[in-house]
């Protein structure tokens, strides 16, 4: 294997990642027309509602029973970066914050000392299908930041820059990090990614058929993973990278990507490792098992602030556009 490639591995569910990331979930659901109540206009018979993850189906309800998605659930000790490439996501949380985002938007949420939130996928269109494509990336927090105040930040699609190669054949959506003079919006303030020295990058790479592009170098201590999730064929550093595989790359030298005869899509995740012990159980990521137990005990006592919404699977009114309402009352409307 080429020296710039550490390994090439098939993708599972969720996608395996390297420190400082914990994992990445890729959701692609061809949801049908809506039923007028933001759920699917289709029979739910035979589905394991509340635990509907069957990969043989073209769409899933996940933990939802009437609207697809993830009703209220807690997190502590890490961050979620939710990239809504297609379709919409309704966010509600225990701090009273809320939002509707998608179709290119990104929500960067720091769970910190603890937050309860829901992520529902409202099917707004009753006259046509409601496809959904999203990534949710779990980014760890170092021990010093495990108990920061919960926070979320919106990176609206209009504000996320795109790098374009000189030959116009490769475009990169720069969600975190930078390529040349193209720099992403600032992440959440307590993130591992907030310090440029940590070399965190989250890029969605789109390559035209037959395109060739060279990944820039990074610090040798940086972990870099390239996920190939859309297309037909590609090579990385001269090695075949099969569809639905990840290449773990050495960052000390440039790496050439050669695309095949169809347009391709790839996700790049990179960052310097936090290099601390990871204790994870369900929605909590701490440094020790004792801290995990303490997190559960505190959640049982406090529900991390309770739940101020009328239902566990709260969705916003159909007429709501893209918006974010923060815990301090500040609102953003798009």
TrEMBL record:
Protein name: Pirin
Entries under SUPFAM superfamilies matching the protein: RmlC-like cupins (SSF51182)
Any Pfam family: Pirin
Residues annotated as domain Pirin N-terminal: 63-139
Matching InterPro entries: Pirin, Pirin_C_dom, Pirin_N_dom, RmlC-like_jellyroll, RmlC_Cupin_sf
Biased composition (Basic and acidic residues): 311-334
Residue span of region Disordered: 308-334
Segments forming domain Pirin C-terminal: 205-305
Family of the protein in this entry: Belongs to the pirin family.
Coiled coil: none
